[in-house]
């Protein structure tokens, strides 16, 4: 089973425009949709859609309207009751799939909420293969939150503790890499560049792999899956580095593509896949997500069958 933690879920509102976004103008939209979003929730939705066991842990008020799309997604959850509704994030996409995303800071959690959330993750992690810690941290949550959760889970379950995957950015990523010993991180090229402090060229996968190997893997993190948008993705482990290009697709919305890539990687991992299989699955799920509107996540039926070649770097 895979467990995900989303400390900062979001009701994702997507508005589709028939033309590029024109700041300062009035534009008529062609459609809109709402999805239960937040990075860990998106990962869990992909895993549930693939009929693989998953539990999503999140803070959620009893009367939050977010429950409607969340329940429709069919994801088993452990909701920690909190006082206020989740944030609503906005995405504006145009006919070419160009996406403008506006994210709110999220609901501040009390010290009791944080303790209850941590306890819920520790309990849910019993017997799990992976624990996914994903997304930004709401205001007032310490940058060390993911480090604290990783320590609590490992202290409780010891050798039986799940492997820990982290998808976050900024100070929370810095902390978890330095002190959380994650088994996997999934930055995109921008997040990795911010982390290393050096510009990265998504068209140069060998350069990306070299930057990861120089700074992160395997010194602090066992593996890194670096998503490079339409260029593809790079996987770096202690045993090697691989690149897979992304298939050409018609992009509808890039929101959730990285989360779907991570879910694809984990699905292949729990199925016993080799590094090349995991990377290929990450690419297929990420591309399928980008071809779907809003934060809609792919099921196995949505995956393309293009021939893709994973190459060793
Ligand atoms: O504020 P965070 O957690 O960094 O990002 C939140 C978010 O943009 O991430 C998901 C896509 O990856 C969306 O469902 C959600 O709105």
From TrEMBL:
<keyword id="KW-0547">Nucleotide-binding</keyword>
<dbReference type="InterPro" id="IPR029056">
    <property type="entry name" value="Ribokinase-like"/>
</dbReference>
<dbReference type="InterPro" id="IPR011611">
    <property type="entry name" value="PfkB_dom"/>
</dbReference>
<dbReference type="InterPro" id="IPR002173">
    <property type="entry name" value="Carboh/pur_kinase_PfkB_CS"/>
</dbReference>
<feature type="domain" description="Carbohydrate kinase PfkB">
    <location>
        <begin position="21"/>
        <end position="301"/>
    </location>
</feature>
<dbReference type="Pfam" id="PF00294">
    <property type="entry name" value="PfkB"/>
</dbReference>
<keyword id="KW-0418">Kinase</keyword>
<comment type="similarity">
    <text>Belongs to the carbohydrate kinase PfkB family.</text>
</comment>
<dbReference type="InterPro" id="IPR017583">
    <property type="entry name" value="Tagatose/fructose_Pkinase"/>
</dbReference>
<keyword id="KW-0808">Transferase</keyword>
<protein>
    <submittedName>
        <fullName>1-phosphofructokinase family hexose kinase</fullName>
    </submittedName>
</protein>
<keyword id="KW-0067">ATP-binding</keyword>
């Amino acid at each position: 089973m895979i467990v995900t933690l989303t400390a900062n879920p979001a009701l994702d509102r997507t508005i589709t425009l028939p033309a590029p976004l024109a700041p300062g103008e009035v534009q008529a939209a062609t459609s809109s949709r709402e999805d239960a979003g937040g990075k860990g929730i998106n990962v869990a939705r992909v895993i549930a859609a693939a009929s693989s066991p998953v539990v999503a842990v999140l803070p959620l008020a009893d009367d939050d309207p977010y429950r409607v799309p969340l329940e429709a997604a069919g994801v088993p959850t452990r909701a920690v009751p909190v006082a206020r509704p989740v944030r609503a994030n906005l995405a504006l996409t145009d006919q070419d799939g160009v996406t403008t995303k506006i994210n709110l800071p999220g609901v501040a959690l009390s010290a009791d909420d944080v303790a209850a959330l941590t306890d819920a993750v520790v309990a849910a992690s019993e017997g799990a293969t992976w624990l996914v810690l994903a997304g930004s941290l709401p205001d007032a949550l310490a940058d060390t939150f993911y480090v604290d959760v990783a320590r609590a889970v490992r202290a409780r379950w010891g050798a039986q503790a799940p492997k820990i995957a982290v998808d976050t950015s900024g100070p929370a990523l810095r902390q978890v890499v330095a002190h959380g010993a994650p088994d996997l991180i999934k930055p995109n090229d921008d997040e990795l560049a911010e982390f290393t402090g050096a510009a990265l060229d998504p068209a140069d996968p060998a350069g990306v792999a070299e930057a990861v190997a120089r700074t992160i893997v395997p010194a602090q993190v066992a593996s890194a899956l670096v998503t490079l948008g339409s260029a593809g993705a790079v996987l770096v482990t202690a045993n090697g580095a691989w690149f897979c290009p992304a298939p050409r697709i018609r992009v509808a919305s890039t929101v959730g593509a990285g989360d779907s890539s991570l879910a694809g990687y984990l699905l292949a991992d729990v199925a016993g896949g080799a590094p090349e299989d995991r990377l290929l699955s990450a690419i297929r799920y990420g591309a399928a997500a980008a071809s779907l509107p809003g934060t809609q996540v792919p099921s196995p039926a949505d995956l393309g069958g293009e021939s893709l070649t994973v190459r060793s770097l």
